[in-house]
Design goal:
alpha/beta; 250 residues; six-stranded mixed β-sheet; globular
Length: 250
């Protein structure tokens, strides 16, 4: 059993789904502390002048240290603003008319408050459906495992009977120092190696690292094939250390 674990990102980038596509089970890590202005509440779309942030407002007053699963979106019109920005910048994209109506439904917020993780998860599930990803999704809050950092990751792997863990390269900085926890549990660790591919995109020049919305609106049913084209053999621990250091110098 091979798994990956990642926090629930808002409108994730394509590499998020490449990692998900490589494993048997993908754990949505919502039982850890929320960080304001993180990828959990924002992402970027392509515009004529480059990448533009879309940020979901959250209730934070009096909630220092809250877990991701407890973060709520306040009543307001953020969805209308996000949808308007998306429409303005993608209405000329080839597949906009096909996918935008469903996006509009998914971003519609009803009631006073909605958990941020619920919004992110229903968007992630929709993208999986569009891309043909059938990997099982599990919320860490449903597994009720404890621990910090690598201890928690190992406990989640054990709970799911995983013998292989695919980590994002961005986690190598702290994970490499505690690899013995995984080896003692009989879990092999590799690191995602992804090289962002180019694709048809509005408003040249090409800008990488936009939300997956960008490739979906521009490439439609070709999107998953393009996403997979950026996949490289996973890094070993030694390779990840070198690659992570190189990323840090950019």
């Amino acid at each position: 059993m091979k798994i990956a674990i990642a926090q629930p990102t808002y409108l994730p980038w394509m590499g998020y789904f490449d990692g998900m596509d490589q494993v048997d089970c993908f754990v949505i890590l919502d039982s850890v502390q929320f960080e304001k202005h993180s990828w959990q509440q924002r992402n970027r779309i392509k515009t004529p002048i480059g990448l533009q942030w879309l940020t979901v407002p959250v209730v934070s007053r009096g909630r220092l240290g809250q877990r991701i699963q407890d973060v709520e979106i306040p009543a307001g019109d953020f969805a209308r603003k996000h949808l308007r920005a998306i429409e303005l910048n993608y209405r000329r994209a080839p597949y906009f008319d096909i996918y935008f109506p469903r996006l509009l439904e998914l971003l519609r917020i009803e009631g006073e408050r909605l958990p941020l993780v619920d919004l992110n998860l229903r968007l992630i599930e929709w993208f999986c459906q569009l891309l043909g990803i059938q990997t099982r999704l599990v919320r860490s809050s449903d597994l009720e495992e404890s621990g910090r950092r690598c201890e928690l990751l190992v406990n989640l792997c054990r709970r799911l009977n995983a013998d292989s863990y695919l980590s994002a390269l961005g986690s190598a900085g702290y994970l490499l120092d505690e690899l013995d926890r995984f080896s003692e549990a009989g879990i092999q660790v590799t690191f995602q190696h992804y090289e962002h591919p180019r694709y048809e995109q509005l408003f040249p020049p090409f800008c990488p690292y936009a939300s997956v919305l960008d490739i979906v609106f521009n490439e439609g049913d070709r999107s998953m094939g393009i996403i997979r084209s950026g996949r490289r053999p996973p890094f070993t621990a030694d390779q990840a250390a070198v690659a992570s250091m190189a990323e840090g110098k950019r």
